[in-house]
């Protein structure tokens, strides 16, 4: 993030990771770099607690079903997209 550069809008997203990043990290920019941030979920399937800092607009879960359900719903709502 650079001062005067674009700020992110993160709303109603679900992210998932199965392990720590091999390069860098999995953190999300701090609140000051976000134009708007609400109702986000991070599904952490790695060992232990989620090892990075997230803004307050995220909840963390270890429930794989949250991700699987989001993928299922996305596919239902986007039938013309070929994966």
Description:
By secondary structure, the chain is an alpha/beta fold. The chain has one helix at 64-77; strands at 8-11, 14-17, 34-38, 40-44, 58-61. A 3-stranded parallel sheet has the order 2-4-5, with helices on one face. Strands 1-3 form a two-stranded parallel ribbon. The chain is globular and about 40 Å long. The termini are far apart. The model has no long low-confidence stretch (mean pLDDT 87).
Give a nutshell description of this structure:
By secondary structure, this protein is of the alpha/beta class. The protein has one helix and five strands.
Topology, element by element:
Elements (H helix, E strand, L loop, with lengths): L7 E4 L2 E4 L16 E5 L1 E5 L13 E4 L2 H14 L6
Parallel strand pairs: 1-3, 2-4, 4-5
What characteristic shape results from the CA principal axes? Answer: globular
> If you average the pLDDT, what whole number results?
87
According to DSSP, the number of beta strands is 5
The quaternary organization reads as single chain
Descriptive terms for the model:
3-stranded parallel β-sheet, single chain, about 80 residues, two-stranded parallel ribbon, alpha/beta
């Amino acid at each position: 993030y650079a001062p005067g550069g674009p700020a992110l809008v993160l709303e109603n997203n679900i992210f998932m990771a199965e392990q720590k990043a091999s390069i860098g990290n999995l953190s999300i920019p701090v609140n000051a770099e976000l134009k708007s941030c609400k109702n986000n979920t991070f599904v952490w399937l790695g060992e232990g607690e989620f090892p990075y800092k997230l803004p307050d607009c995220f909840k963390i879960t270890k429930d794989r079903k949250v991700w699987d359900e989001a993928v299922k719903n996305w596919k239902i709502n986007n039938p013309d997209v070929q994966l």
